[in-house]
Amino acid sequence: MSLPASLFRQLDMMVEERKLPSRSQLIAELIRHALAKHEAYTRPEEMLAGTITVVYRGDRGRVRHQLAQTQSDYLKEVITTQHVFLQDDQSLEVLLVQGPAVRLKALADALRRVRGVQQLELVTTTALLPPLYEQDAAEDADNGAAQ
After folding, report:
1. What are the pLDDT digits (tens) for 101-120?
2. Contact assessment for residue 52 and residue 122, using Cβ atoms and an 8 Å cutoff
């Protein structure tokens, strides 16, 4: 791979600051991130997992309510959320999400439209969460016979 010398210097500084063993490890991480982002835009039906990080300010009750209402439209995609209060009347909320790329992007866009949201970032990966609940085939047969 050939890159301008200034870019190599910046990469080497990043490797050193993060205390990574090699430039290759950093480059691989950056490529994986770029590929996951690319998947989200080029293959809208591709199943992805990820996080949506939201920083917001304002009337916390109103904003939290609107965020919750928006999330309720995406119950299949939102696995869980974590909320913390920050300084200066700000809040941070992180959503763990999984679903088709097009739905995750639509969720992020809908949350971004809530008045009071200051920052929002959707980060995805093509690695998926294992199924949260799977019925055993025998259980399905027993339930069918019992009905």
Report:
1. 999 999 999 999 999 999 99
2. yes
48/37 Cα distance (integer angstroms):
10
Query: For the chain, how many helices (H) and strands (E)?
Result: 5, 4
Sign of the CA dihedral 81, 82, 87, 89? Answer: positive
Q: In what order do the strands lie in the sheet with 78-85?
A: 78-85, 90-100, 47-57, 117-125
Secondary structure class of 37 (helix, strand, coil): helix
Q: φ, ψ for residue 33 (rounded to 5)?
A: -65, -45
pLDDT in tens, 27-64: 998 888 888 778 777 888 889 999 999 999 977 689 99
d(CA 25, CA 33): 12
Say if pTM beats, i.e. exceeds, 0.90: no
